[in-house]
Inverse folding.
């Protein structure tokens, strides 16, 4: 662990797992599609791909991608969220760990896709963001993809103000050896434009 408290823990006290799961259960009951992130990622993947769900929370996305035939590993620093994931999908791999020290988990390398959805990057411990991007990039196969979704303004974040800009994030990705392939304003693929408040980004690791 880095010893720094992440913004998510500051907001929730690290005990939000059941409440978070119940919120999404209510959305499902009311007819909402809660699988937008998985639907976005699925066309980017070859059959039976290896997926790292970084900041997996209660496992909603990784469980759905596993149902589609992919091999998913979920990592999160919040044990209350992982408790839900382990209950919902006990045969999947769920690991408690700090994304800034992903290498300490001794994961088998070469993931086809690493996913950081749900405002994972903005809710990291302050000052660890670039280290997390480096760790995620290092976990990818050559040609592998880093897919992220994050709010860029207060309207799209559980924070009073955004802790980072998309320019900073792109710089961290470039420094980690990643190249921006695509960017959208939503998980449904609506076009991104400056000032739209949310960014879904696809960065790739070079093949050689």
């Amino acid at each position: 662990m880095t010893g720094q408290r992440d913004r998510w823990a500051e907001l929730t006290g690290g005990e939000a797992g059941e409440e978070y799961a119940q919120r999404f259960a209510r959305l499902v009951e009311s007819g909402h599609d809660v699988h937008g992130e998985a639907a976005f990622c699925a066309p980017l993947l070859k059959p039976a791909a290896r997926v790292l769900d970084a900041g997996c929370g209660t496992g909603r996305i990784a469980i759905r991608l596993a149902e589609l035939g992919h091999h998913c590993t979920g990592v999160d620093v919040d044990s209350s969220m992982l408790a839900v994931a382990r209950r919902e999908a006990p045969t999947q791999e769920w690991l408690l760990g700090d994304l800034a020290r992903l290498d300490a988990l001794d994961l088998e390398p070469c993931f086809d896709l690493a996913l950081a959805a749900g405002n994972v990057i903005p809710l990291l411990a302050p000052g660890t963001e670039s280290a997390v991007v480096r760790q995620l990039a290092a976990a990818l196969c050559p040609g592998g993809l880093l897919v992220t979704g994050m709010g860029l303004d207060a309207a799209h974040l559980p924070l009073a103000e955004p802790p980072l800009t998309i320019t900073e994030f792109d710089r961290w990705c470039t420094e980690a050896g990643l190249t921006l392939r695509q960017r959208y304003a939503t998980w449904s693929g609506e076009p991104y434009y400056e000032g739209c408040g949310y960014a879904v980004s696809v960065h790739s690791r070079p093949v050689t």
User: Anything to note?
Assistant: The first helix runs from residue 7 to 12. The chain has a mean pLDDT of 91. The chain is about 30% helix and 20% strand.
